[in-house]
Amino acid sequence: MKKTVFCLLVALISAxxxxxxxxxxDDRNDHLFDNSHAQVYGKKMSEWxxxxxxxxxxxxxxxxxxxxxxxxYCTIVxxxxxxxxxxxxxxxxxxxxxxxxxxGKALFFPLxxxxxxxxxxxxxxxxxxxxxxxxxxxxxxxxxxDGQAMPAKLLKRSxxxxxxxxxxxxxxxxxxxxxxxPGIYSPAVDDGYYVMLNPLPVGTxxxxxxxASPGCDYPPTQxxxxxxxxDVTYQLTVVPVSLH
Length: 244
Fold this sequence. Notes:
Elements (H helix, E strand, L loop, with lengths): L3 E3 L1 E2 L35 H13 L24 E3 L3 E2 L5 E8 L3 E12 L6 H13 L2 E7 L2 E2 L2 H5 L2 E3 L3 E5 L13 E15 L5 E11 L2 E3 L4 E3 L2 E12 L5
Parallel strand pairs: 3-6, 5-15
Antiparallel strand pairs: 1-6, 2-4, 6-11, 7-8, 7-12, 9-11, 10-11, 12-15, 13-14
């Protein structure tokens, strides 16, 4: 069966907290937005993860920020209260990006994620089942913000399964396994570990995130994915904004 699976490991940074972080005292962290909230900026986390993929998959490789090794494309098509940052295409590790962002912007990210796109006649349930094992076995999830490591127990609880969505694949877009012609495809589903951070103050900041998976198999459809990992650092400059 023809498959289209995008193996992209992703990460970002910040989103404003709407309410207090919940949990035991040792589970709290002022940087992290609590995934238990029903919505943030008008969308569920499962909707933000779908929108993140639509943003990435609809952008050609040049200038797709996912293929960027310097941070020069980090502002491409960014708008609204939430900005996205990216991880890396599978196999690309040790990436360091330098990026400037406006103050007050929330940044949304996955530490590790996969998307499965129907190109034949697969239902949502089958697509989800194919990639679930890769995320079930995730290891080495980490996020360090300005030298402060985010609690591992919080990152492990940050798993998000997207709502089903449609994708537009442009010419010279993100490569698929196997190659898929440009067009509109549905349904697509995402599974991953996503984080929202509170907005960072004006100034310079360093973020580093990692994640890994041993791969997965789903025998009913002969689906197989090799091990993959990510290691990305963002050197961010939050720039003050004047509206007067």
